């Protein structure tokens, strides 16, 4: 699973996801992409599950790019622990997603294959998404 090698701080505030994505909102690497339609938090397990589903649906043809990285630690206190005594230990890593963010990109597959792969990958994510294509695409191989 994805996680940072080094962070400046061990624990982070929860934060809120405001506004639309200004960076990472256009296709850069591939011909088709999976775009977020609503704000939310995606953890490293969901990213990995979606990546596996997309790769498996493409039958290992073409190429997949992951455009998001879980760099925010989420802490959690153990069950049946009383209030107070500080913040809990970091449990998992997540990333904040703004609407309009391209999360995955693929290339080297047909539109039908990309749609099917992204449908399977989107089922693993906790937010609504849509498939976007590069403008001016002709018939893909």
Question: How would you describe what is shown here?
Answer:
There is one protein chain. By secondary structure, the chain is of the alpha+beta class. The protein has a domain at 17-68 and 98-134: Aldehyde Oxidoreductase, domain 3 (Alpha-Beta Complex), CATH 3.90.1170. Helices cover 18% and strands 27% of the residues. The strands form two sheets. Strands 3-6-1-7 form a four-stranded antiparallel beta sheet, with helices on one face. Helix 1 (44-57) runs antiparallel to helix 2 (111-122). The longest helix has 14 residues, at 44-57. The radius of gyration is 17 Å and the shape is elongated. The chain starts with 31 loop residues before the first strand and ends in an 8-residue tail after the last strand.
Features:
141 residues, alpha+beta, Aldehyde Oxidoreductase, domain 3, four-stranded antiparallel β-sheet, three-stranded antiparallel β-sheet, 2 helices, 18% helix, elongated
What is the average of the pLDDT values? Answer: 94
Helix content: 10-25%
Question: What is the percentage of strand-forming residues?
Answer: 25-35%
Top CATH class of the domain at 17-68 and 98-134: Alpha Beta
- How large is the radius of gyration? 17 Å
Describe the largest sheet: 4 strands, antiparallel
Corresponding CATH superfamily of the domain at 17-68 and 98-134: Ribosomal protein L16/L10
Supply the helix-strand structural class: alpha+beta
Oligomer: single chain
What is the tally of beta strands? 7
Low-confidence stretches: none
CATH-defined architecture of the domain at 17-68 and 98-134: Alpha-Beta Complex
Q: The CATH topology of the domain at 17-68 and 98-134 is what?
A: Aldehyde Oxidoreductase, domain 3
What's the N-to-C terminus distance?
Answer: 32 Å
Order of helices and strands: EEHEEEEHE
């Amino acid at each position: 699973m994805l996680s940072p090698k080094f962070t400046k701080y061990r624990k982070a505030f929860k934060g809120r996801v405001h506004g639309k994505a200004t960076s990472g909102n256009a296709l850069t690497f591939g011909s088709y992409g999976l775009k977020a339609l609503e704000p939310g938090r995606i953890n490293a397990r969901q990213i990995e599950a979606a990546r596996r589903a997309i790769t498996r649906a493409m039958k290992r043809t073409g190429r997949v790019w992951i455009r998001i990285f879980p760099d925010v630690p989420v802490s959690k206190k153990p069950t049946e622990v009383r209030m107070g005594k500080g913040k809990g230990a970091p449990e998992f890593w997540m990333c904040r997603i703004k609407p309009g963010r391209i999360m995955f990109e693929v290339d080297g597959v047909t539109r039908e294959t990309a749609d099917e792969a992204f449908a399977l990958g989107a089922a693993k994510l906790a937010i609504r998404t849509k498939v976007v294509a590069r403008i001016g695409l002709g018939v893909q191989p």
